[in-house]
Amino acid sequence: MDKAVQTRFNDYPAAVQLLLENLRALIYQIAEEYALGEVEETLKWGEPSYTVTAGSPVRIDWKLKTPHHYYLFFNCQTKLVDTFRELYGESLVFQGNRAIVLSLSEPLPEQAIRHCLQLAMTYHKIKHQPLLGASPSTAA
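^ thats the sequence. predicted structure below, dont judge the formating
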């Protein structure tokens, strides 16, 4: 783990740290499963950030001002969150066009999150396709 990111992870409450480490692990699993290359892990705006060559950066964080939630942030200049809303509007919570809001008290909707991460991590290959190549009927 990047040293600055490790320091940031150590600052989170223990329960939050575990949840964010789970998201981090999903990012690395997806990169491996889809042969997306090396994941660049850095700290951007004080938040752990993950990027692969053909993808749009993904950041993860927890905020003291919203202690019951943690977040997956995406570049707001992309179609990512609008696409996620179209695919998973009934099962995920969004913040504007930049984030998926997750609850500390509810299980991670892993299938939907994995799909959203996979779309973000392949964004530059699929950005010209309707719904980024996804189908609403196949979203779970």
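The two ends are 32 Å apart (CA to CA).
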